[in-house]
Design goal:
- By secondary structure, the protein is of the alpha/beta class.
- The chain has 15 helices and 15 strands.
- It folds into three domains: 99 residues, no CATH class; 179 residues, P-loop containing nucleotide triphosphate hydrolases (Rossmann fold, 3-Layer(aba) Sandwich); 89 residues.
- Strands 8-11-14-7-15 form a five-stranded parallel sheet, covered by helices on one side. The protein has a four-stranded antiparallel sheet with strand order 2-1-3-6. A two-stranded antiparallel ribbon has the order 4-5.
Length: 383
């Protein structure tokens, strides 16, 4: 007797899970609940695409009746003729193996080097859907704009993908570029009594296979748009009209160069500019959300060595502060950067409450008895 399962998307948690197919019964005749999750190895949920069929020769309801357990869990493939025949007969359908179609997604999900990072294992979180999309875009050299709140992992995920794919990464801090002409193109210099044009680093790296990260693009001077436009559209060229004499005036961008940009979007981020619609339209959009609470706790423990009970309290207080921001009762929120700072202080011996006060209170105006700081102080003290 065989049981059949399929990988499905859990949209609420942005994860891949495994559910039993409908119409089946346990050995005692009890109908199988297709809505209950089936416990299985982690690699099953990370390696195979949604819709992959699996087979097992056992299925049991867990103690507490919250999920199913199996053994001898295997992917249903073309070599398992008897199982496939039984599957087709039972469910009146024709088996289709999604791994047969060699799509870029199936290749990504079957590549052990490209398994989505895990909070517990890697100390880094990103939903599998967002991860696979970013890997696909970098593999296909699709310009991508990653937006999301600070601490959501925009820069980290790009670095992680490039490391996994062994692709050179060049980061340009767009917020620190005051003069785009000199920083991205170059400047005239005197050398040996003669004027020469000293080409910027940007002009060199675009001529070789790599990923170019335009970090915090919405902090860049608006004049940088004129430099970037021809790089990002079909022209794929960098115009250098400021060069003199017989110097090169136009550089072709290597076909294996991928431009990735990041941006913090929201009224709380000072020093940012509203991005030109023509600039945004030259990118594939990828929006990252805030890290889920369970994942944030795991990240704190993995990256700092913090005890689980302390990580739970840190995230609980941080979420209450974030809730105040969502209700517009305070002017700014907290990111995982702040909770990591608190975690590190606690690991180094500081009291949990004192560590939160030291990190959180300076972010808000007022005193412990007045203003936003008072609200934060009371939130921390309540725990």
């Amino acid at each position: 007797m065989y049981y059949y399962f399929k990988t499905v998307e859990d949209k609420k948690k942005s994860k891949i899970r495994v559910n039993a197919l409908p119409g089946q019964k346990l050995s005692d005749g009890t109908p199988v609940d297709e809505n209950l999750m089936v416990s299985c190895p982690t690699e099953i949920r990370s390696k195979f695409p949604i819709g992959t069929i699996f087979v097992s020769d056992a299925l049991n309801l867990s103690f507490g009746k919250k999920y199913y357990t199996t053994k001898n869990f295997r992917r249903l493939d073309g070599r398992m003729r008897a199982e496939i025949a039984e599957y087709d007969k039972t469910f009146k359908t024709t088996f289709v193996d999604p791994m047969k179609e060699s799509t870029i997604l199936s290749k990504i999900m079957s590549d052990t080097k490209l398994v989505c990072p895990s909070s517990k294992k890697d100390g880094f979180y990103m939903s599998s859907n967002d991860w696979n999309l970013l890997v696909r875009n970098i593999k296909k050299h699709v310009n991508t704009l990653i937006v999301g709140p600070t601490g959501s992992g925009k820069t980290s995920c790009v670095k992680e993908v490039c490391t996994r794919l062994d692709i050179p990464l060049h980061v340009f801090d767009m917020g620190s570029i005051i003069d785009p002409i000199s920083s991205l193109l170059g400047v005239h210099r005197l050398e040996g009594g003669k004027s020469i044009f000293d080409y910027a680093k940007f002009t060199q790296v675009i001529q070789e296979p790599c990923v170019i990260l335009l970090d915090e693009l919405n902090r860049a001077a608006l004049s940088s748009n004129n430099v970037l436009f021809p790089c990002l559209d079909d022209r794929r060229t960098l115009s250098i009209e400021v060069a003199g004499g017989k110097d090169i005036r136009e550089i072709k961008i290597h076909p294996e160069v991928t431009f990735i940009a990041t941006a913090n979007v929201g009224s709380e981020y000072s020093g940012t500019n509203q991005m030109d619609r023509a600039l945004v339209n030259r990118f594939f959009p990828l929006e990252l959300g805030c890290i889920p609470s369970t994942e944030e706790k795991a990240v704190l423990c993995k990256r700092t060595g913090l005890e689980e009970k302390d990580s739970e309290m840190i995230v609980k207080v941080a979420n209450n502060i974030r809730s105040l921001y969502n209700k517009q009762e305070i002017s700014s929120t907290l990111s995982i950067r702040e909770t990591l700072m608190v975690a590190n202080l606690v690991v180094d011996g500081w009291d949990l409450g004192k560590a939160m006060e030291m990190i959180y209170l300076p972010l808000y105006e007022g005193t412990t008895t007045d203003g936003e700081r008072s609200t934060i102080y009371k939130t921390i003290s309540s725990y």
